[in-house]
Design brief:
The protein is α+β, with helices and mostly antiparallel strands and 437 residues long. The chain has helices spanning 2-16, 18-42, 47-50, 55-70, 74-100, 122-129, 131-144, 148-155, 162-182, 190-208, 212-222, 227-256, 304-310, 371-377, 430-435; strands at 106-108, 111-113, 116-117, 188-189, 262-280, 283-297, 300-302, 323-327, 329-334, 340-343, 351-355, 357-364, 367-370, 389-394, 399-404, 408-413, 416-421. It folds into four domains: 11-101 and 224-257, no CATH class; 112-180 and 189-207, no CATH class; 263-327, no CATH class; 330-435, no CATH class. The strands form five sheets. It has a six-stranded mixed beta sheet with strand order 10-11-17-16-15-14.
Length: 437
């Protein structure tokens, strides 16, 4: 017991030692950021669910804040503030990337397709005009760089200069928008930089150009921190972060391990009668087995249809689950004469065109049709074409969607729909260009 007490005392003493705290802080920052990014990338966490993982950012920042309260050296306080800034900027990058999914430029067939707005106040004017639909985007961007108004002046008093602070904020805004543009993970918009700068600048002016900073400083000086309590909170936060980070890393490792075994659970029988069970990418999947059964895969019970959709290599399971598959699209004839060919649809609600495509052949009920003939006879939903990737664009005149399949690209410009060759370059002006053909 005495040895255990000595070991425990040595461990606790580490948290009270200033040099040890510096190492512990850096360790916590690396651990939390690595855990955070590994988890959101591995499990494809979207923007809507990202707030559930803010704990990986909040805890290390709280640890650094506590360290600063206990710290007497101005140099160490400055270093800790720099670390807070780094954590914030890295976290900001994850927010921007997650929020940009589905609105980005493309990289297909070795060709880069960019989307951007360089016209001052163009997007801003549309947002203000249609404020109710854009209020969340406006508020989100106003708040995005707001913490810089607090962090930068704490790092260096020179940032209390309005012009230097504004310039730095603009440069950081350009950095993130530039990353979105270069790596095709978002839309470069000059008005977004303006919004983010305005949010940070208003906060800066409220703090440093009024008496607010004096009131805050006076309040902070009047508070006498309880060193023992703060150190205990520091120790608790350390072990808490280590625990949740370790859990996330184990989950990531577990998810990365091969788990290709799948088995059938339930009752079923097989005969000569085929039924359609799933459509995925460009294939229809049929089975001769019927009944109430599920597939046990990766410790979960899922339907056969779900299994087909999520399995990276379904071909390995075709025999095991008595599956047969056939291609939906069997052939496509591409031209290079910049021709626009109108397809007729029964209800006439939408206008559908081929551009630089002569014909697309599809398989329906073991019969091969030209797609334009198929549209005249059947409802398109019966074909159920599944596309492998989807991207959204926003231009001044259109809200349009872009889809790509193994054979062709599909562009929707409001009520106009276009089938284009797979290597056709999509830009902001594509809808205008095709409309004027």
């Amino acid at each position: 017991m005495k040895k255990l007490r000595k070991i425990f005392k040595c461990v606790v003493d580490l948290f009270y030692d200033k040099k040890s705290k510096r190492i512990i802080n850096i360790f916590l920052i690396i651990l939390s950021l690595v855990s955070y990014y590994l988890y959101i990338i591995t499990f494809n966490i979207g923007y809507g669910n990202l707030k559930n993982y803010f704990i990986f950012i909040i805890v290390p920042i709280l640890v650094l804040v506590i360290t600063n309260i206990l710290e007497t050296s101005k140099r160490e306080k400055k270093n800790n503030n720099i670390l807070i800034l780094i954590i914030y900027l890295i976290f900001l990058g994850s927010l921007i990337i997650a929020n940009s999914v589905g609105k980005q430029g493309l990289y297909l067939n070795g060709i880069r397709y960019y989307n951007y707005n360089l016209v001052l106040f163009d997007s801003l004017k549309n947002m203000i005009t249609d404020f109710l639909n854009y209020k969340e985007i406006i508020i989100y961007n106003l708040l995005m760089l707001l913490p810089l108004a607090i962090i930068l002046p704490l790092i260096n008093k020179k940032f209390k200069n309005t012009y230097l602070f504004t310039l730095t904020t603009i440069l950081i805004g350009f950095l993130y928008e530039g990353i979105e543009y270069i790596f095709l993970i978002g839309v470069f918009d000059i008005d977004v930089i303006i919004l983010r700068t305005i949010g940070a600048l208003i906060t800066f002016l409220l703090i440093y150009k009024t008496k607010l900073i004096e009131i805050i400083n006076a309040k902070l000086k009047s508070i006498k921190p309880n060193i023992k309590v703060l150190n205990n909170i520091y120790i608790f936060l350390f072990f808490f972060l280590v625990l949740i980070s370790s859990n996330c890393i184990f989950q990531v490792i577990d998810e990365s391990l091969p788990k290709n075994n799948a088995s059938v659970s339930g009752t079923y029988k097989c005969d000569n009668k085929e039924e359609l069970v799933a459509i995925n990418d460009n294939y229809r999947y049929y089975t001769k087995c019927h009944g109430e059964y599920s597939v046990f895969y990766k410790n979960n019970l899922i339907t056969l249809e779900e299994f087909i959709r999520i399995t990276p290599d379904i071909t390995k399971y075709l025999d095991k689950f008595k599956l047969r598959r056939e291609k939906v699209i069997t052939d496509i004839q591409v031209t290079e004469d910049n021709s626009l060919k109108k397809l007729i649809k029964n209800d006439g609600a939408k206008k559908i065109y081929y551009y630089n495509i002569e014909s697309i052949k599809v398989r329906v009920d073991d019969n091969i049709y030209k797609y334009e003939d198929y549209l005249k006879t059947y409802e398109p939903k019966e074909l159920d074409l599944y596309f492998t990737r989807k991207e959204f664009f926003n231009s001044n005149k259109y809200h349009y969607k872009f889809y790509t399949s193994d054979y062709f690209n599909y562009l929707i410009c409001d009520n106009l729909e276009y089938y284009l060759p797979k290597n056709y370059k999509i830009t902001n002006n594509t809808c205008d260009y095709l409309k004027n053909k």
